[in-house]
Amino acid sequence: MRPALVPAHTRIVNHFNKETFVFTDPYEDGKSSRMDVILGKGGSGGGNAIAHIHPGTDEIFTVNSGCVMVMIDGKEYYAQAGQSITVPKGASHFFRNAFDGDTHLTVAFVTAQQHLRFFLNIARWTSQYPSYFQPDGSVKLLPIALALHAFPDHLYISGPPVWLQKALYAALAPIARLMGYRLATEPVSKAERRALENDQAFAA
Predict the structure, then answer these.
(1) Alpha carbon 196 to its chain's center
(2) What is the separation of C-alpha 112 from the centre of its chain, rounded to a whole number of angstroms?
(3) What is the pLDDT of residues 103-156, one digit of tens each?
(4) Are 148 and 165 in contact (CB under 8 A)?
(5) pTM of the predicted model, to two decimals?
């Protein structure tokens, strides 16, 4: 088994979104990956409720307690404790707490890719580099361009064509580094990626 990215059950609070990331199972061996998310009252996920897509994986929200609203392609879906909502790959979505208290979710990506690393990066930024964020909780353009270029085909903003976003992020990523922006968690190297993909195929 590959070493854990962080100690199991590591919690990182995103005060911008009233969202706590819980890296319950921080391993990259399987076909899928998962983490827990706790939304405080009024909390939201997905870049402070910015609609986005995951082009390479379905995303499954399972509610452990509370209630969540997931907006998928402009339609609201609600789930309470014991219920799940699946967002098909490529579908525009975001989610927010629909409960008058905390809502505890398990979020799974059925094609693992490097989603644990990607969201660990965003989570660490909230505590290590709060200057990377706008007052409304959205990530500033240069750091998010750096992250989205480093983790291609993991997440794109809904609306602009993906090819255009890829070109923009490729152009802005080196500028971001020159301006001092850094990833908190780097993607795996090409060799590590091949080994990881082999591990995931074997696990399947």
Answers:
(1) 19
(2) 11
(3) 999 999 999 999 999 999 999 999 999 999 988 888 999 999 999 999 999 999
(4) yes
(5) 0.90
Give the chain's domains with CATH numbers.
Answer: 1-204 (2.60.120.10)
Name residue, tokens 């905390």.
102
Taking only the tens place, the pLDDT of each residue in 65-108 is 999 999 999 999 999 999 999 999 999 999 999 999 999 999 99
Gap between the Cα atoms of 137 and 114, Å rounded: 23
Q: Which letter, b or e, does each residue of 70-94 get, where b requires 16 or more Cβ atoms within 10 Å of its Cβ?
A: bbbeeeebebeeeeebbbeeebbbb
- 165-179: pLDDT as tens digits: 999 999 999 999 999
Alpha carbon distance 93, 173 (integer Å): 25
Distance (Å, whole) CA 23 – CA 148? 20
